[in-house]
Amino acid sequence: MRLLPLTLLFITAAAVHAQPFAGGDVQKGKALHDAKCTACHISLFGGDGSGIYTRADRKVKSASALASRISACNANTGAGWFPEDERHVGAYLNQTFYHFK
Q1: 32-88 tens-digit pLDDT
Q2: How far apart are CA 74 and CA 101, in angstroms?
Q3: Contact, 98 vs 38, CB < 8 A?
Q4: Lowest mean pLDDT: which of 3-7, 61-65, 88-92?
Q5: Domain ranges across the chain
Q6: What share of residues in the chain are helix, strand, coil (percent, to 5)?
Q7: Where does the record locate the signal sequence feature (predicted)?
Q8: Which residues contact 75 (CB under 8 A, 6 or more apart)?
């Protein structure tokens, strides 16, 4: 009987690991990103701002690092996002630029 909760924990952890930003809505994430991130990224990298994600020396190298960066930017800019908003933005960025598994 004690193995059941442990088994469920491993299954849940595997599912979360297999699909970063599970439950995130890419379209909502794009809208949030465009409203709160693009202007700053353009000021830093020029163009459409996507250079922050595509540069050779990008800082984000994992889904967990992307989630941390999104949270930090949310806090530093006062975007006012809830955790589900951060998940939406993560889903958008992951699908569009990062492709973490």
Answers
A1: 999 999 999 999 999 999 999 999 999 999 999 999 999 999 999 999 999 999 999
A2: 23
A3: no
A4: 3-7
A5: 3-98
A6: 70, 0, 30
A7: 1-18
A8: none
